[in-house]
Amino acid sequence: MQSTTPETRLATEADFSIIRYAQCWEDADVLLNALDIQPGDVCLSIASAGDNTLSMLTREPSRVVAIDLSRAQLACLEIRVAAYRTLTHAELLELIGTRPSPRRAALYQRLRPQLSEESRSVWDAKPRDIAAGIGKAGKFEHYLDLFRRFILPLTENRANRDALFAQKTKAERQEFYRRAWNNPRWRMLCRMFMSRTVMGRLGRDPRFFKYAEGPVAQGILERTEHALTELDPRENPYLHWMVFGAFGEALPHALREENFARIRDRLDRLEWKRTDLQTYLDTTDLEFIDRFNLSDLFEYQSEEETERLMSDIVRLGRRGGRIAYWNMMVPRQRPELLADRLQPLADVAARGHHDDRVFFYNAFIVEEIL
Question: How many C-beta neighbours within 10 Å does residue 142 have?
Fold first, then answer.
C-alpha cells in the first residue's frame, strides 16, 4: 500500500485531472543560472508543463528525471518531447500557439503516434485547445486570457500596451510606469483579479493557498512594477504573453531556436514518472542526485512536512549539489535542523530574484548541499 504523503493528500483535495499549467511560469534562465548544471550531472525536476525540464537538457546532464502527480501535466511534457522529435522549430512554435497557424490539428496528428495511450487520451479530448495552441490549454493560461481580454483593456489602451514594449532607458521605463501605466483603475482591478479568492477559483486552486501569508495581490503588484521598470519588457516573453496572448521576438529558453537541436538530441537522457517527490525519494534506485528543480513545491506543505522532505533531499543529494525553488506566498527555506547540511546561496538567489521575468513570486531560494 502506498504511504500517504503531503502531495498525495493534496491530490485528494485539489483537482489534478486537468491541465493546470500548459506552460512553465518560472523563468528557465534564472533556474539554469542558479542550478549551474555540470556535464554528467543527475537532475530531478518537477515536470509542470515540461519547458524547464527540457531546458535542463541543454546543460549536458547525464540524466534528467521529471516527476509529477498529475497525468495531465505529464501529458504536457510528453507532447513537447514528441514535438521536438517530430517537428521543426518553426512548427513547434506553431503548435505551442505563439505563431499563427491553421494546421495545428495536422501537426498533432503527426506526433500523436509517439504519445503514450494515457497522454493521447488527454490530448485527443482537447481538439479546441490543440487548434488554439497547446500552450494555451491550462487553467492558469485561461485565467491570464481573462485578464488580457477583459481586465487589461479597462486600465490600459492599445497604445499603452504597445508602448510598454518600446525601447526605453530605465529612467524612461520608470516615468512611463508612473505617468501612463500605474493608474488607480489598474491598481484597483489588479487587487481584485489577483486576490486569493479570484486567483484560487480561476487560476490556481483554493487549496494551494492553505499556508499563504498576507495579501496575494499586493506582492504581485510590487513585483509587476519591478518587471516593468527595473527589467526590460522587450526581453520578457512571459510579460508579452500576458499582454498579447503570444510570445514576441523574445522566447522562453526551451523555445529558442539555438536550443532546439540541443534539446532534441538529448531527449534519450530524459525520463518521467507519475509520482510525488516524497515517494520518489523513498523508492528511487538512484545513488545520488546533483541538481533539484523543485518549482514552488513547498508552497503547499507545512513547515514540518517541508523539513522531512528537505531531509530526504539532502540524504540523496551529492555534496556540492544544488536545489532551487520559488516562494509565492509561503515563506519556505532550509530548516535550522539542516543548517550543517544545506547552505543558502544568498547572492545567487538574490540575483535570480532580481532577474526573474516571471513576477508572481516573492522569493527565489537556492541552497547547496554540504
Answer: 16
